[in-house]
Amino acid sequence: MPGVRAEPGLRRFAPRWCGNDDAGMHETNDAYRLLDNLNTAVLRFDGALELIGINSAAEALLSLSKRQAVGLGVDALVSESPLFATAVRRALADRCVFTERDMHVRVGDGRNVVVDCTVVPIVDGEEIGEVLVELTDVDRMHRIVREESALTHSAVANALIRGMAHEIKNPLGGIRGAAQLLERELETPGLKEYTRIIVEEVDRLRSLIDRMLAPRTSAEPDGLNIHEVLEHVRGLVEAECDGARAIAVDYDPSLPEIRGVRDHLVQVFLNVVRNAAEAARPGGRVVIRTRAQRLVTIGARLHKLALRVDVVDDGPGVPVELGQSIFYPMVSGRADGTGLGLAIAQSLVHRHGGMIEFESRPGETAFTVYIPLENEH
């Protein structure tokens, strides 16, 4: 079978894990505590392939709580991914360590994740005492590479943009002043209209350049309620749409305050929600959803808890050819787009220690912003 590796031999089941005395119980608790702090998802099945344990990383990966998962059979745990149950049963039948690479698993919240699955039968005497399943999130590894690449591209692009912006901004003041002087000399209203257009377009370009430079401005972060920021953005975008788009919300009221720069976060979500509203189908809607997300990798660092904000639209989706460059400056899927909104949003999110990513298919596009929550929360 492609992507599959079987290794002979079994791992012996340590008697003290049975927990029949105080020392055994202490060692058992230490072992389970160690498993619970691993970044790798670990599931423990008994000999009948009923789940008896799951660590925090597995809860996060499978979007299932321990209370929901424990007691489920191997078939029911990921019912829409039969290959998972097949791999576990094969390892049990062959009594050997078994690994399958790049297994696609459909998890509790409907997402498809790609994992490397290793199944380890553990022997108690001559019987199989437990079966350990280790799931390594391949998507997480790919995300680390993508995020590091995005940070590098973002730094290079920002340096390029700043250089260009300064070079463009210098002559704009002269053009605007010359147009105003010319307007004073003209008597024909029609000609004055041309100078007015020149002044307005120069002002628009200067505003655009200021937005390019905005991510570099410094501001002191403060405690803020993310829902207040999102409601402010929702009001702005609904006013722009004049009722043509419905913007629904699905907030988690238990989220704590985050530390951030309010104006920067308003700009982030204004850019993302405005794009979603413009992409949504006629009569369609946009959904803004907030959640707390456990075990989020940003760059090469694993955060135990992060704020997650999803902005979902029902439009045609991001064109495939733009998928790898959607966050680059000057890249836009619209003829009238500047290609700066998502680039600015990404830069501002990075300044908050977070990341922004997206998943897209026709009828559903979701841009997701992650911002780490403080340890004390």
Describe this structure in words.
This protein has ten helices and 14 strands. Strand 11 and strand 12 form a beta hairpin. It folds into two domains: 4-137, PAS domain (Beta-Lactamase, 2-Layer Sandwich), CATH 3.30.450; 219-377, Heat Shock Protein 90. 27% of the residues are buried. It has helices at residues 22-36, 56-62, 66-69, 74-77, 82-94, 138-185, 189-213, 226-241, 262-279, 341-351, and strands at 4-7, 11-12, 41-46, 51-54, 97-106, 112-124, 127-137, 222-224, 246-250, 258-260, 285-298, 301-313, 355-361, 364-372. The chain is elongated and about 105 Å long. The protein is α+β, with helices and mostly antiparallel strands and 377 residues long.
Compact description:
The protein is of the alpha+beta class and 377 residues long.
**Which band does the percent of strand residues land in?**
25-35%
Tell me the name of the CATH class of the largest domain.
Answer: Alpha Beta
Question: What is the CATH T-level topology of the largest domain?
Answer: Heat Shock Protein 90
Average the pLDDT over all residues and give the rounded result: 77
Order of helices and strands: EEHEEHHHHEEEHHEHEEHEEHEE
The helicity comes to 40-55%
Low-confidence stretches: 1-26
By DSSP, the count of extended strands is 14
Radius of gyration equals 27 Å
For the sheet with most strands, the description reads: 7 strands, mixed
The CATH superfamily name of the largest domain is Histidine kinase-like ATPase, C-terminal domain
| Distinct helical segment count | 10
Named CATH architecture of the largest domain = 2-Layer Sandwich
Silhouette: elongated
Instruction: Give the terminus-to-terminus CA distance.
Output: 46 Å
Number of domains: 2
Assign the structural class, choosing from mainly alpha, mainly beta, alpha/beta, alpha+beta, or little secondary structure: alpha+beta
